[in-house]
Amino acid sequence: MEMFESEKQLEYINRIKDITDNRANKLGRELTYCVVTFGCQMNANDSEKLRGVLERSGFVTAPEGEADFVIFNTCTVRENANTRLYGRLGQLKPLKKKRPELMIALCGCMMQETPVIEKIKKSYPFVDLIFGTHNIYKFAELLYESLNSKNTVIDIWDKPKEIVEELPQKKTYSFKSGVNIMFGCDNFCSYCIVPYVRGRERSRKPEDILNEIKELADNGVVEVMLLGQNVNSYGKTLDFPMSFAQLLKGVEKIEGIKRIRFMTSHPKDLSDELISVMSKSDKICRHLHLPLQSGSTRVLKAMNRKYTKEDYLKLVDKLRQAMPDIALTTDIIVGFPGETDEDFEETLDVIRKAGFTSAFTFIYSKRTGTAAAAMENQISADIVKNRFDKLLKVIGETATAQCEKFIGETFSVLAETVSDHDQTMLTGRLDNNLQVHFTGGAEFIGKFCMVRLTKCKSFYYFGEMVSECEVASV
Ligand code: 5AD
Ligand code: SF4
C-alpha cells in the first residue's frame, strides 16, 4: 500500500517535471519556488517535504517576491498566526495582478478549519491550490492537478488516512535533521486546536524511523530531533506497541548519530523508564522541553493537563536528581479563562523553583471549537499584558541564573550557521540546546568545536573556540 502511494506520487513528480521543463525552455530560465513556514517544528519538517517534491519537479529556490510559485505552510495555534497569513496574502494580491502566472498554494493546520476556507474563497480567490495536513503526501498529485486547472484546486480531508513513507524531503541542514516519529494528538488540552487540525495520534513504525535515521547518518547527519506533539506516548497505537524509551535505545545504536534530541514531552506521560534511558546515554542531549502551561493546579485542571503543580515540581526534582546538568525549557500561557492573580503567582512560583533555561511564553488565544473558547471569565487584555510583562521579567532572571553557572567552562558545540549579526562568528548549540555565538569561520559549520563560554545574555552565550578540530566523541 505504502510503496504504491509513494510510487504514484513519484510518477506525478515526473509529469510535473515535463511541464516545468517545457515552461523553463520558453522562459529561458528555471522555474522558481518559495516555501514560507509558519508555526512549529512539525510544520518545518513538512516544509522540507514540500521542498523535496518541488526540487525533484524542476523548481529552484527564490525569494518570496520573485518566485513563480509561493506556498504558505500555515499555523493556527494562536489567532495572530492566522492574521499574519491574511496579511501576506493581501501583499501578494497586487503581485498576482501584475504577474498572473504567479502560482500560490496554501496548506497546513489553518486549512483544516472550514471558516478559513470560506474566507479564502471569498476574499482571496486568486489562490491556486489549497490542501490540508492529512493529505500533504499527495502534494505532487495536487500540484499536477492545479497546473492543469484554471480554478482553485481544494482538497481537505477531515481525517488522516495512512502514513506514507519514502517521499522526497529536502533537508535544511546537511548535519542535523528533524524526524517525525508520530503525528496528531489525543490530549485535548482545553485551549488547544491541534487535536482538531492534526487528528488522532498515530505513530510511525519503529523500523521506518530507524531506517530513515540510518540513511541520514550515512549522509552525514550527526544530530537528530525526534518530533511529535507528545513523544512520550509514542508507540501506543502500533500493531506491536512499544515505548518511546525503547525507540530511543534503537536510535542510540545508530552509528554516526552523536546527538539525539526530542520534543515535545507532556509531563503526564514522562516515564521513569525514559529518565533512566536518558541518564545512561551519552548521545541523548541533556535537555528537556517540558511545557508547564500554568503553575496553578486549578487552572491546570481547567486546561485538562492531568497533572498538578506538585506533580510537575516532583518531576523536575526527579529529573535533576537523575541528571544534575539537565536544562529544562517550557511553554507558558498567561490569561487562560478565569486565571486570577493568585493563579498567576503560582506560575511564577514554579518558574522560580524549576529554574528553566528559557521559556516560550504565550498570551492565551481563544480558538473556536475548543472547550476553553466556551468558558466564561475570558481575561481582559490589559490584565494579561501586565502579567505577561511580569512573566518575561521572572523568566529572564531565572534563565540568567541558570546560564551564568557555566561561564568560563568549555563545552562541545555543534556549529550550525554563520552568525546573523557578525560574519566573523558562528552560531551553534550546546548539548543542552543553548545557543552560543563564537569566533570561527564557515569551514566549521556542521562540526563539533570545543568552545569556552565567556559571556551570558540570559538565553544565549558568547564564546571562544579553544580547539579547532572536530572532537571524535562528544
Ligand atoms: N493560546 C495560547 N497559547 C497556546 N498554545 C497552544 N494553544 C494555545 C492557545 N490557544 C501554546 C501552548 C503549547 C504551544 C505549542 O502553544 O503553550 O505548548
Ligand atoms: Fe495541544 Fe495539549 Fe496536544 Fe500539546 S498536548 S498539541 S498543547 S492538545
Structural features, described:
The chain has helices at residues 2-27, 41-56, 79-98, 114-123, 139-147, 194-198, 206-218, 244-252, 272-280, 297-302, 309-322, 341-354, 381-404; strands spanning 31-37, 59-61, 69-74, 103-108, 129-131, 153-155, 176-180, 182-183, 202-203, 223-227, 259-263, 287-289, 327-334, 358-363, 410-418, 425-430, 435-439, 448-456, 460-467. By secondary structure, the protein is an alpha/beta fold. The longest helix has 26 residues, at 2-27. The relative contact order is 0.08. The model has no long low-confidence stretch (mean pLDDT 95). The site of iron/sulfur cluster (SF4) has 10 residues, from helix 6. Iron/sulfur cluster binds at residues 185, 187-189, 192, 194-195, 229-230, 266.
Q: What are the SSEs and their pairings?
A:
Elements: H1 2-27, E1 31-37, H2 41-56, E2 59-61, E3 69-74, H3 79-98, E4 103-108, H4 114-123, E5 129-131, H5 139-147, E6 153-155, E7 176-180, E8 182-183, H6 194-198, E9 202-203, H7 206-218, E10 223-227, H8 244-252, E11 259-263, H9 272-280, E12 287-289, H10 297-302, H11 309-322, E13 327-334, H12 341-354, E14 358-363, H13 381-404, E15 410-418, E16 425-430, E17 435-439, E18 448-456, E19 460-467
Parallel strand pairs: 1-2, 1-3, 3-4, 4-5, 5-6, 7-10, 10-11, 12-13, 13-14, 17-19
Antiparallel strand pairs: 8-9, 15-16, 15-18, 16-17, 18-19
This protein binds 5'-deoxyadenosine and iron/sulfur cluster (SF4).
